[in-house]
Amino acid sequence: MDNLLTMKQFNEENIMEILNYAEYLKRHGIRELPGKYLVSNLFFEPSTRTKLSFEIAERKLGLEIIQFDPGHSSTTKGETLFDTVKTLEALGVNAVVIRHPEKEYYKQLEGIKIPVFNGGDGTGQHPSQSLLDLFTIKEEFGYFQGLNVVIAGDLSHSRVAASNAEALQKLGANVQFVCPDEWSGDYETLSGWDNVIEQADVVMLLRVQHERHDEKMSFTKDQYHAQYGLTADRAAMMKENAIIMHPAPINWGVEIAESLTTHPKLRVYEAVENGVYIRAAAMEMILRGGNVHAQAAPKYLAI
Length: 303
Fold this sequence. Notes:
It is an enzyme of class 2 (transferase). By secondary structure, the protein is an alpha/beta fold.
């Protein structure tokens, strides 16, 4: 694995290897890598969790972060993404993390020799978010085969939905989708929660991505919440050991009822914590060509 671009690049074995190593790092701590690595984070879209999570993982790994601000770079003069990354490569940067509004932007980067970590590509994929979601589910249940997962919300605009649907189905989970018809995209969806919420092990809500909607929504926020959101009444119908997930930021009162902000089934902030370990695991494994710390390898593979 030379880059982290899309969940399509993973098979079940690859996914479990990263999850297991992230678990090892969470148990034993993230250690600085031998040698010196320079990394630059190129975020062309706003981000809190993903950007900070990558930065914290990088600092714990001992990487030196080369600051990049798109608003004060030559991209404002028309420089292409390829030229920007090629310039960083020529300057000695060892890896880049990129979030970009264009779907599959990484196809422009053929010929780039340093690793690229996809921090989200438009409505395409968000592999590190998917991996941290999988890690959170694995921590909770210990397995994926046969789990009932419901992904609900703005499916056609969600890179998280695309990544998680791909990965969860590879791992043997039963995945169902709930959303308004106009946001179903290529998914076979349900128009409501009937006969779904009571059987779900994982309920994953998606943010309504207003910034990606050209059209005016055909329903109000209250109407959306009533039909497609996780209301307090629906949460009360969930199985005892079921969990609630959301990639955040959350539109409280839209995707999830405001009364559920501290609900014991909610795993939003546990997932944020797990993001640091997942991103550290992926960066170490790619930067070191799959050769993690020698003393760790036999241990984490046995988890």
